[in-house]
Amino acid sequence: xxxxxxxxxxxxxIRFANVNFRKxxxxxxxxxxxxxxxxxxxxxxxxxxxxxxxxxxxENMLEEERIKYKNGQKFLARLMGQxxxxxxxxxxxxxxxxxxxxxLKSRRAHPKLKPPExxxxxxxxxxxxxTGRPFHDLYYTGRPAYFDVMHVIRLPEVIHFPRxxxxxxxxxxxxxxxxxxxxxxxxxxxxxxxxxxxxSGLQRTS
Length: 206
Hints:
- The chain is mainly α.
- It is built from seven helices and no strands.
- The protein has helices spanning 2-26, 40-79, 89-99, 116-119, 144-159, 176-183, 192-205.
- Helix 5 packs parallel to helix 7.
- Mean pLDDT is 69; it is low at 1-35 and 166-172.
């Protein structure tokens, strides 16, 4: 009898949690952004405003977590008898392992104290203006950072390509250091069929 009652209560709780989750997930945008009224520009503006509010709340949360992390770092330094100003992340990890030993096999289950930037997923900044136009001119390629690097690599070849004098562009040459600094901005998960054309282009410029 007790088992059946607990199963019934647990089943109702799961259904209630799923309903709340769906409401919270699919009803976050304002009605104007969902096309319930107003013009298209009003929907874009309200969506951008909503995104900016969420991004600001995310930044405020990160700032609070940074303060908590700094306080915890200073507290661990005092516990270990060291100077808080020179107590880095390696010392924090060693102090955590010393004060909170764990026999669990999974590293993810061990206690840790990390900066909030390493704990919380990074949130992309707004890539559109108030009219809905993207800031990056290669945004609609789907990979603006990648094709921006490919554009920089191919630009010297286009400059030295024989053209009529009337259509020459006054563009300065690009050094390999500038290309390398641009490659660093690429996403870490670049697939192989996107990566090897980049490598061959860099080899031609070297």
